[in-house]
Amino acid sequence: MNSAEVVVVLHLAFIAFVAGGGLFALRWPRVAWIHLPAVAWGAWVQFADWICPLTYLEDALRGDDPRPGGFVARYLMPIVYPDLAQEGILTPTARIALGCAAIAINVLIYTWVFRRHRKRRQEAE
To answer: Cα–Cα distances in Å, from 60 out to 71, 73, 99?
Structure first.
C-alpha cells in the first residue's frame, strides 16, 4: 500500500468516525471531546463546500494537481448515489443533506448516550 492509499484509508476511517464515533462514548465518555469537533468539522466541510486537506494530501502524494471535488464526492457518492455526484462534484443539495445527516445521526447517538449515562447514575444512587 502506497502513502496515497494510506491517506485514503485514514480519510475513510475519519468519515466513519464522524458518522458513528459517538457510539464509542457509550463505553468511553471522554471520546465525545474528540468526536464532537470531528462531527462539526465534517458537517462544516459539507455546508461550506470545502475540500478536506486530506484530499489535497492524497492528490499531492499521487503526484496529481488538485482535482475538483472531495473524498466523499469522488469515492463514496458514485457508489451509493450515482445521480447526486456529477464528475466528482456534489450538488449543493447533496452537500447540505450530508452535513445535516452527520448532525442528525449524532444527535440521535448522543441522545442515547446521555440517557444511558443518566440511567446508570440514577441506578448507582
So the answer is: 14, 18, 26
**For residue 2, what are the contacts with CB-CB under 8 A and spacing of at least 6?**
61
Q: Whole-angstrom Cα distance, residue 78 to residue 27?
A: 34
The Cα–Cα gap between 12 and 65 comes to 21
- Which of 15-19, 79-83, 97-101 has the lowest average pLDDT? 79-83
Strands 85-86 and 89-90: antiparallel
Angular region, 85: left φ>0, alpha ψ -120 to 50, beta rest = beta
The label of the residue with cell 448515489 reads: 81
Residue 39's pLDDT is: 96
Residue 50 DSSP code: -
pLDDT in tens, 25-80: 888 989 999 999 999 999 999 999 888 888 889 889 988 877 777 788 777 777 77
